[in-house]
Model the fold of this input.
Amino acid sequence: MLLDTHCHLDAAEFAHDRELVITRAQTAGVGGIIIPAVEVSNFDTVRTLAHQFAQGAYALGIHPMYVERSQPDDLDLLRQALLMHRADPKLVAVGEIGLDFFIPEISQGAAREKQERYFQFQLQLAREFELPVLLHVRRSQDTILKYLRRNAVCGGIAHAFNGSFQQAEQYIALGFALGVGGEMTYTRALQIRRLASELSLESLVLETDAPDIAPEWMTDNRRNEPAEVLGIAKTLAALRGISLDELIQTTAKTAFRVCPKLSMALR
Done:
């Protein structure tokens, strides 16, 4: 099954043609799309959207880039939402959570401390509700790995992975898969393409991060969308010298392993 394990389908960029975007994904053979939340205000949005089409699934969490503007009770509201919807088969993970040390304004001092506090609390929620996590990791690989070792969760996905081989191996050892998306399609992305080519195929999953990280061929329209995961799959299969069918089936098996509820969400 062809899966997009990370797609912000609720984004404003899709407001005028979201149904067509979903139809194009279905036509491309996409059998599942995980829609992660980024803040409390879109928890209901991603949940409702995931229930509007058979291929939908969702995650609830507070993105590190939204931590600074969050309200004091947002973590409590996240816990309440996870508790309220814990029996929902389409709720498959806690996410998108993580750390972002790329943006100076949120990667220093009190802002960084708040990011780390939110991340640890959300890892604890993932443990409490026995859910995997969808990780945002930007210039924060080693710090995130430190927190994962301290707060053992039941795995998940390191979204848009762009670390070293050694870091990749540490995530894999902790039960995580690594998300491969549009960035891998650029011939200049030598490190990412080498990782995608040489790491165990069983450690990789496909994603778009739509509407962001458009693949190389989208020269006229830079808005990415879930249908493009088919082209990403073709690129990865060519890099690895395997058939498209093997690539799709193996990455889907991995996605179902690290997000066990996903198979129920797509029935």
Notes: The first helix runs from residue 18 to 27.
